[in-house]
Amino acid sequence: MSAGVHVPEDLVLVGYVSGAFGIQGWVRIRPYSADADAMLSAKDWWIDRPELQEISRLEAKIHGEDVVARLKGVADRSAAEALKGATVKISRKHFPPLAEGEFYWIDLVGLEVRNLAGESLGVVRDLMDNGAHPILRVAAPDVPEAELHKHEKLIPFVEHFVKQVDQAARSIQVDWGTDY
């Protein structure tokens, strides 16, 4: 990265460039969330190709499950293809405000999960969407990523099972047994 460039401390990984879109330099971004409002509202993105740099988003729109965007300095398909695989980050300040009881997934990752008996079930390692609702992927923090599927507990992120989310205490209380 160029010397003297200020990188915001609140950057959040929101997606990656999956390839070019068309022949006029547009890129296709696969968002990590089903809700891409933050990507569409932010005028400045941070992309890690060839090194982490700020780049102005000129236009962006939803296209199927992806976001397609025209970026300043990316003039043709070759330039867009060169960005394939780059991660896209935006400043947290561009995230739309949430209603009471709503959470960004990124804010849940790393929270300790305890059941009603006070037993630790692990930490939120990731979330996934099954179409009806999000699902917490909970496992011990020391389980390697490659082994996660063997050791994780999949807890539906719905009111019936999730009783309390306390971001200040970095914990989630669930109605879930250790043997589920």
Summarize this structure as a short list of keywords or feature phrases.
six-stranded mixed beta sheet; 180 residues; mainly beta; elongated; six-stranded antiparallel barrel
Tell me the total number of β-strands.
12
Strand content is 35-45%
Query: What is the 3D form?
Result: elongated
The SS-based structural class is mainly beta
Outline the fold blueprint.
Elements: E1 11-21, E2 26-31, H1 37-41, E3 44-47, E4 53-63, E5 66-71, H2 77-82, E6 87-91, H3 105-108, E7 112-115, E8 120-129, E9 134-139, H4 148-151, E10 153-156, E11 162-166, E12 171-174
Parallel strand pairs: 7-12
Antiparallel strand pairs: 1-2, 1-6, 2-5, 3-4, 3-6, 4-5, 7-8, 8-9, 9-10, 11-12
Characterize the structure shown.
There is one protein chain. With 180 residues, this protein is mainly β. Helix content is 11%, strand content 42%. It contains four helices and twelve strands, in the order E-E-H-E-E-E-H-E-H-E-E-E-H-E-E-E. Strands 1-2-5-4-3-6 form a six-stranded antiparallel barrel. The radius of gyration is 19 Å and the shape is elongated. The mean pLDDT is 91.
